[in-house]
Amino acid sequence: MKGSIPEKEKQNSYDSRESWPPYTFRDYADIAPETYNAFMEFLSTENTSNKVMELQPWISFCDSRCTFCYYPNNPFSISMMEPYLKALKKELMMYAKTRYVQTSEFDEIVLGGGTPTLMSKDQMFGLIKFCEQNFNTVDDYFIKITGSSRSFSKEKLVAAADYGVFQVDMGAQTFDDKLRKMLNLPDSAEHVKEEVKLARKLGLCVCIDIMYNIPGQTLESWTNTVKTAIELDAEVDAYCLEVYPETILYKQMQSGQAPPQADPELEKQMYVAAYELFTEAGYKPIGHDRYSREEWHAKENCLNGWPWAGILTTGAGCFMGYLQRFSYSNIENANDYIAAVNEGRFPIAKLSESTDKEMMRKVMTKLYLRLPVDKLEFQERFGKLPEDVYPKQLQRLNEKGLIEIDEKEIKLTKLGDIWKANIAWEFAENK
Ligand code: SF4
Fold first, then answer.
1. Partners of 74 in beta bridges
2. pLDDT class for 431, splitting at 50, 70, 90?
3. Which of 23, 64, 185, 281 has the CA that lies 20 to 30 A from 384?
4. What Å distances lie between residue 206 and 169, 177, 423, CA to CA?
5. Average pLDDT score over the chain
6. 52-97 pLDDT, tens per residue?
7. For residue 4, what pLDDT band results from cuts at 50, 70 and 90?
8. Is 274 helix (H, G, I), strand (E, B) or coil?
9. Distance 68 CA to ligand 1 centre (A)
10. Within its chain, how far is the Cα of 87 from the centroid?
11. Handedness of CA 221, 295, 320, 80 (dihedral sign)
């Protein structure tokens, strides 16, 4: 995928770039007794998928609220952390005791959230040890810790490197201090850079989130952020900001307190600029928004196993959980979550089971993840080829030069990379 994106005139395959997915975790179906029973039944079976999974305990607390955030986090209080961790370990054990999890293997332990670095050093590594002791890991599994640049203290970074943590994830978002202020990111761009440099010096892989299409962001501000990320030798998730109605930023934009987002043309230019800068610097585009120089990231099972593998996520408000056909999110409020776990219930708030038709669509969203669709595997699973199920869509995309189809697989072209969300929409139910 290295190299520049095709000339401008060919870039206009659609009027504007869509976003994907067309829902948030809050749109999942509320938990229903029959789906809950089906999920329990599923957990009592052996995992025969031959896919390795990711284990993702969440620490759903933050010590400030980013204005764009729609995540279900809880305000941080030191006194809540211990009861929360007790409940989190109880929930982890509920899964660990099931046959499905006992016959599964994990290649990643990811502390997600929220802000896991709000835990003390002992709490953090206590939780990682707990996961290592109670879940089957492959020999060369990786540990990742998510956190804010201001709560990754030197002490925690040194301890992470000593423990053998592979990667730390930080939400840098932008290196433009004016934009940082608007997004309510409390520390300066300089401080984020210092934290990344320190972590790199300690030998840790650092993955930072950066965003384009922030209200008021210029192309120059965006490319400066991209260049800084490259200079810092970070792995990068470069994603387009989606402003959801429940966020502070949305209200600020409505009232005129914050400027509007870029028009579709500028947004596309930002995407193309980042793609070119990253690929010229030796990064590979992988997953939906990642630019990577780490060989291992291209092999991650939770990415390559989609949609048949799994992310076993736990904790208040966690919402990226999927185990084969089941997708779930947990109760958001930390107190309600603790109460549910203490009653011995799986603290799931929303749960859905995908039909064959829905799984076929999920398989096609591999294109959105910059992964090829394996035609033989599709046929083995569903008894038909993708061309039998989606003849018009595939013909249209092929004619536009957005995908390539051969006997074995369907994959995105370089031009298709710009439009991967629009491509995912081609297979959606309510296009
Ligand atoms: S740190 Fe992450 S989870 Fe917390 S408020 Fe900011 S975006 Fe949301």
1. 61
2. low
3. 23
4. 6, 21, 30
5. 93
6. 999 999 999 999 999 999 887 888 888 999 999 999 999 999 999 9
7. confident
8. helix
9. 8
10. 24
11. negative
Q: Using an 8 Å Cβ cutoff, are 94 and 135 in contact?
A: no
Residue nearest to atom 3 of ligand 1 (CA): 114
CA of residue 114 to ligand 1 center, whole Å: 6
The structure's pTM equals 0.92
* pLDDT digits 0-9 by tens, 245-265: 889 999 999 999 999 999 999
| Ramachandran angles phi, psi of 229, nearest 5° | -60, -40
Question: Distance between CA atoms of 413 and 93, rounded to whole angstroms?
Answer: 44
Whole-Å CA distances, 66 to 20, 71, 325: 21, 10, 32
Residue 304 CA, chain-centre distance (Å), reads: 13
What is the spatial distance between Cα 24 and Cα 178, in angstroms, rounded to a whole number?
A: 29
The Å distance, Cα 38 to ligand 1 centre, comes to: 33
67 lines ligand 1 (CB under 6 A): no
Q: What single DSSP character describes residue 30?
A: B
CA of 374 to the centre of ligand 1 (A): 36
The answer to whether residues 147 and 181 touch, using CB atoms and an 8 Å cutoff, is no
Which among 210, 206, 213 has a CA at the least distance from the CA of 225?
210
Sequence letter at residue 221: S
Which atom of ligand 1 is least distant from the CA of 185?
Answer: 6
CA 209 from centre of chain = 10
